[in-house]
Amino acid sequence: MASLAAAQTSATLQTARRSALSGRPAAARGVAPARPARGAALVVRAERGSGSFWSGFVVGGVVCGALGFVFAPQISKALLGDDDRLKLRWDEATDGEVTKQNLADKIAQLNAAIDDVSSQLNARDAIKDEAKALTWLGDAVLGAAVSDLLFTSLPPNATTEQLHNRRMELVRQEACAAGAARLGLAELLVVGKGYEGQLPTARMLAEAFEAVWGALYEDAGFHLSAVKAPYSRLFPVTLNGHDGHDGLIVAAGVATNGSV
Predict the structure, then answer these.
(1) Model's pTM, two decimal places?
(2) Which of 103, 206, 207, 243 has its CB 3.0 to 4.6 Å from that of 173, i.e. a possible disulfide?
């Protein structure tokens, strides 16, 4: 009987303790108390004195965590210091933003430099295209000027076939290259690295020669007389011979190994 009474008393104490932990009396719930939460169970085991090392470790961790949460503002203040320290950190952050801005400026300057190089390359392409256009124009202008000069110096017995053949001789690539060499254009040509140290080709000189006359024609307001006068003075045109072009290619130092 004594053992049974002791067991009942122990059960009553446990029920009261569980009720206190759960916040509601057992009688008010009308049902058997639910299993206590994990933290509450650890507290009960600690109170009983039957907890292991790990139980005490967990309980100690919970307590230390709670203390840390409570004293977190004081700890933060101790680590960060007063307002001056915080202001210094803010200034450092601001300096970081300035550094980012400087980096952005440098990137913008780099982009501008790249754009400038690109624009220079585009300008070179534009110059190259303009030179090609002047070469095309000069080719047509030379044909017209030579035709006019030949026609005005036409002997009574000349045939159209003779005129055609002679004009072809005067405007062919070799004749234009010889004329360019006589004008000293070979020394003025700017060639690529692949042609450095080499003689300019006949094609290079011929195109430069045609481009000069094309530019002169354009600059004179597209008047053919502006081309005929200097051309006839530098390269006298006759039906049976041309003192200005013939025999000058090799003597002027023009490469004759092809038309490239």
Answers:
(1) 0.48
(2) 206
